[in-house]
Backbone:
């Protein structure tokens, strides 16, 4: 491997590590809010223009009120933990989209979308809060920026492999590229599952801080499990299995209650 590229990768890793608040996980992130947030906000606006925003006033109001309650809790946490500048960068917005897909997401900077298709899974306000907390947690922990950083590292790594095997026989080059490709792909899947597990935990803490019942986070995944028709093995999935999530959330619930009281 090219020594200069290797040195650069190590130096980049050492200077770009930070810690996710509450969970304490070390993360690699060298993508700044200034780089990602303007694009995030613009893409969110484009999405709203290209998709059907729900006209259900009552359900939209419920989504927005729950989102506001959890965002207030998250903002309160950030301001109490020397993250005031970061708190100011969020532009919270919550919209309900007419779509049968069972999904919800939060873009960097606090732009949230719920699809009407996930409302039967949420079932009630506490269920909505569980999903909302999870999605907001992705933005809070900067998972999007971390994925972008990881993707750039992968690109650099691929270039290093190509440079380091330039003098090898073609068959040997193919072997190295295959090993790198498979390894990095499964690594990214595991990386995504790490984010999902972390968002589950953070989301549970946030929903408790906002006054919602954390037991319903377990209920959401029990209902999701009943509706799920996928059989993809967990190690080849970007998300943990429903059974794993249910087990993890049940085990984490007492700690989540303690943490929420600490950070309220």
Residues:
């Amino acid at each position: 491997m090219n020594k200069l590229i290797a040195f650069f990768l190590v130096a980049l890793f050492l200077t770009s590590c930070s810690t996710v608040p509450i969970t304490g996980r070390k993360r690699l992130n060298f993508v700044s809010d200034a780089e990602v947030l303007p694009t995030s906000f613009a893409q969110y606006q484009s999405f709203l223009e290209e998709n059907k925003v729900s006209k259900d006033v009552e359900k939209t109001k419920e989504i927005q009120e729950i989102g506001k309650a959890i965002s207030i809790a998250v903002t309160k946490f950030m301001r109490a933990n020397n993250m005031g500048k970061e708190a100011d960068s969020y532009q919270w917005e919550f919209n309900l989209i007419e779509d049968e897909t069972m999904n919800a997401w939060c873009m960097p900077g606090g732009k949230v979308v719920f699809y009407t298709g996930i409302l039967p899974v949420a079932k009630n306000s506490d269920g909505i809060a569980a999903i909302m907390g999870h999605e907001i947690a992705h933005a809070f922990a900067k998972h999007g920026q971390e994925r972008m950083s990881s993707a750039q590292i992968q690109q650099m790594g691929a270039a290093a492999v190509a440079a380091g095997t330039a003098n090898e026989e073609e068959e040997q080059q193919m072997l190295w590229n295959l090993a790198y490709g498979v390894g990095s792909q499964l690594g990214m899947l595991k990386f995504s599952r790490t984010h999902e597990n972390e968002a589950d935990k953070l989301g549970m803490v946030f929903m408790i801080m906002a006054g919602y019942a954390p037991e319903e986070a377990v209920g959401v995944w029990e209902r999701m499990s009943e509706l799920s028709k996928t059989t993809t093995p967990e190690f080849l999935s970007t998300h943990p299995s429903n059974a794993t999530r249910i087990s993890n959330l049940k085990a984490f619930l007492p700690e989540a209650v303690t943490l929420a009281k600490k950070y309220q």
About this structure: Strands lie at 17-19, 26-28, 93-97, 104-107, 111-115. Residues 19-146+188-263 form one domain. The radius of gyration is 20 Å. The chain has ten helices and five strands.
